[in-house]
Amino acid sequence: MSFFENHDLFSSEWKGYEKALLRFFFLYFFIQVVPLDWKYYAQLLAIDWSNLYYGDLFNPSRYYPRFFSGGDTYANWVIAAFIAAVGAAAWGKYEKNLKAHPDYDNLYYWLRVILRYRLALGVITYGFLKVFLLQAPYPSLSSLNTGYGDFTAWKIFSLSLGAAPIYEVFLGVVEVTAGVLLLYRQTASVGAFIILCFTGNVFLSNLAYEGGESIYSLYLVVIALFLFAFDFKRLVRLLSLEKSVEPGRFKPDFSLNWLKNTRFALKGGFILVFVVIFGFRAYSGQQNNPHNIPTTPGLADAAGLYNVQEFILNNDTLAYSYTDSVRWKDVVFEPWATISVRSKRPVRLDSTDYEQVGYSDDEKSYELAGAAGRHYYSYEIDRKTNTLFLNNKNKHHADEKLVLRYTRPDLNTIILEGLNEKNDSVKITLERNHKKYLLIEGRRKPQKL
């Protein structure tokens, strides 16, 4: 079949400009899809398969080439296109001197195979993160007690998705289903079309909500667009013009047993690793170590919102003041080992707005990313001395440490005494606020808050 014309399927009638386009696209997508960085393979070799974490597979699945350091930029695409254009021109010139020309039908087929599996890898791994509610977890207590205007647009979007877990699971199922459809020639165009609609919407939402994955989502959309173009004219002819069409039946010769076995082994290995094993590990991660929620247990029976009843700094009692940047306004103890403090002291925003799969609690920044108005502290507990050792989780305030002894006169009161981040002595009395949340209580029946 010629590259864009709707002739009989995979005839050998390739026009000159179609060959030139295929040479360019083959080189361009090869650069964009096939890892050419040795560090990528070093990362794969470092995976501990005996103790596999889903992040070990997710992080490599997001690969695409970067020629510039720093964040994602479309300049990387320009460089790839320039290299592909130069290479395609040299390829065409070299081909003119050959007596036997490459089989462009086979070339087009294998390019589509590479792109099908690359796209499937991208959407399946992201899909399982949604299926098991890993990408956007349910809003934390700290988030529920942060002003709407203190969130970035990206964080508002993520919290909204996390607040609707059934919808998040549905989106994940759509992605995984589309990815599986890509693994088979007969359904690849259906999968590509679903991804065009789904990931196209993800791209637009990244633009609208200022997310950090607009370039990567467009990268997947471009691959899906190229794959869908294979059947686009047939679908128009069949569905719009109501004319008969021939399905795409071409495939290389796999009559040799070793070729047939290699093909099945590679496909089976892909399904085993990225559908079965990754899916199981993502489920296990949800149960034991989700990458957006710390797992270290917090102070027993302390989770909740606390009002600051008394705040003494260097033996001086500070009265409540909305504008005071020193006095704490309220404190949230999460079920895990995080304390968040609301005050007027400025927060230098952690603007992380893309998916990061952290292994340890120290690497998990989702709860504070994109949120101002509160300072977040991880803490360790010395139960012998009833002491909390707090560290500011924000990378811009990482040098802030507090050492506070705690006493608990009753289940609703916590008294903290010790040194704050400036080594000033403080004594803080916290009183539990039995606040109810409509998001948790539900809106289907009258609520008394």
Question: What does this protein structure show overall?
Answer:
With 449 residues, this protein is an alpha+beta fold. The chain has two domains: 16-288, no CATH class; 304-441, Lipocalin, CATH 2.40.128. The protein is 44% helix and 14% strand. The chain has helices at residues 16-33, 38-45, 54-61, 75-96, 104-131, 141-144, 153-162, 165-181, 188-208, 214-240, 257-288, 438-441; strands at 304-313, 316-317, 330-333, 338-342, 374-382, 387-392, 401-410, 413-419, 425-433. The chain has an eight-stranded antiparallel barrel with strand order 1-3-4-5-6-7-8-9. A hairpin with a 4-residue loop joins strand 5 (374-382) and strand 6. The chain is elongated, with a radius of gyration of 28 Å. Residues 1-11 have low confidence and may be disordered.
List the defining traits of the structure above:
disordered N terminus, Lipocalin, 449 residues, 12 helices, eight-stranded antiparallel beta barrel, 9 strands, elongated, 44% helix
